[in-house]
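We store amino acids, tokens; thus:
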Amino acid sequence: MLTHFEIAPGISLSCIQDHRFKHSAMTFQYLRPMCTEEAAMNALIPSVLLRGCKSAPDLRRITQRLDDLYGASVSPISRRAGNCQTTGLYLSLMDDRFAPEGEALTEQAIAFLKELLFDYPTEQGGFLPDFVEGEKTNQIYAIEAEYNDKQTYCSRQLLKSMCREDPFGVSRMGEPADVEAITPQGLLRHYEKVRRESPVEVLYVGSAAPERMEGLVRQLFAGEDRSPAPLNADAPLHLSAPEDLQENLDITQGKLCMGFVTPVVNRDKEFPAMQVFNTVFGAGMTSKLFLNVREAMSLCYSIGSSYYGAKGILTVGAGIDFDKEQLTRDEILRQLDACRRGEITQEELTAGKEALLSSLRATSDSPGAIEGYYATAHLSGLNMTPERYMEVVEKVSLADVVAAARTVTLHSTYFLKGESQ
């Protein structure tokens, strides 16, 4: 059962009371506008906070504190949701029902979370330099890892091209140069601004009574001096001019990404039909792209589609031989045209819906999965429980899928090819 509280202006708590699990989960997230100026800092802040607080000033003592809570864990979290970026911490701990001698683990864990968030060590008006420099290095490695995954890199480059004038084109972790430029003093000033001005979303999944969690979250924010500013999370997509781009790299397999747009976003009643269309078209091993472009025609080594419902963007990515680029493009568009004409068998429709339903069922498999669904759904404007979402998907008809397909148009492409090609 979902219960929602407004703790204070700009601070909301959502509780999903669930007695099925031995662990509970809680996320604490500040909401920030996704923008080039602060994306790298927002992604860095949680990792720096987890390097130490005044009572546990290093990783060893943080680990000891968590061990005292019977193996609780705290991890950094930074998400993208439409025009928003979140920065905060994820807490997982043993549910109080299983604690020895009735220990109130939730109270202890939230008290420690408060120390990590608000009682951090400082030096010369900034975070500790060792903490900041160490986590900057880790973040740059993570950004470079995306570059080394060439399909991910190609998709990222495509979205940057399509969304140069939109926050969706901003990298969630920033660029390496943005991270390198961060100073301990600048990061602390930014975090103080985040604490003061940002809306906060707290989400809890576990057996504790919602009223108890409301009291604990109020205590968490006791003493915080805040003037939260409103966040424009639902601004429309601002697309750049269409482009067909190529880049030459030292690679042995080409990477093709095609970007499509649709007016259907996850706040629209047509959204479930668009999700089913995406599954039938390219998301999975029963899709038209996989069965035809890869299996029947052997035009690619891998292929799949992704739908970004918060923005109305659909992408197709394929790993191909360099000389198969045009053939693959043409066949992807032919499969889209087939969907537009209604050339979808009952078996394809059923398989597509079942794949989507299976993924929705999986959202109730663990506290973390439940938290992930509700947190991202709320932030991106999807106001449906998983159960309601499944009911709506079941009712999606072939005509609904065809109508969704007819809203999809090609916008831009990005092709990675070998240096000698």
